[in-house]
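Title: Comparing notes on inverse folding

I've been comparing how different people in this forum approach sequence design from structure. To keep things fair, I'm posting one structure and asking everyone to reply with a full sequence. Here's the target:
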């Protein structure tokens, strides 16, 4: 599942989602939870079931800047990632899942120290990552 974070300067494959919502600003619906669980009574965290390190390597092979992130934050993206992983766990679904943060910014380009990750580079990296994941012969 992809999401956008204007504060990131690279494609970030998330390793963990935490059961916490703490929004510094309201979301698009105007909600602004403070120190609330994503799912009350559920586990404190879920780890991605994707082969994160290998996925990042496949993305960087395209020339895009990508890395592992150990925090999806406490905003909407983390809530989506956590909710997805909780649904899979609760329903014992035999599927893998995870979350990829894409850098954003002016016209979809991220700038981190003068280096841009263009939309085209993001698309190429995601395409390569999906191709890798579709092979299915890797461990999580």
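Reply #1:
Here's my take.
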């Amino acid at each position: 599942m992809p999401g956008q974070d204007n504060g990131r300067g690279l494609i970030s494959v998330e390793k963990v989602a935490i059961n916490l919502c703490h929004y510094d600003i309201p979301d698009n619906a105007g909600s602004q939870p403070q120190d609330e669980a994503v799912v009350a009574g559920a586990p404190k965290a879920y780890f991605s079931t994707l082969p994160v390190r290998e996925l990042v390597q496949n993305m960087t092979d395209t020339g895009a800047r990508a890395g592992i992130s150990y925090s999806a934050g406490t905003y909407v993206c983390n809530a989506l990632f956590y909710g997805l992983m909780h649904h899979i766990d609760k329903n014992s679904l035999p599927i893998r899942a995870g979350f990829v943060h894409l850098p954003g910014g002016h016209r979809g380009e991220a700038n981190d120290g003068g280096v841009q990750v263009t939309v085209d580079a993001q698309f190429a990296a995601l395409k390569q990552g999906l191709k890798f994941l579709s092979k299915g012969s890797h461990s999580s």
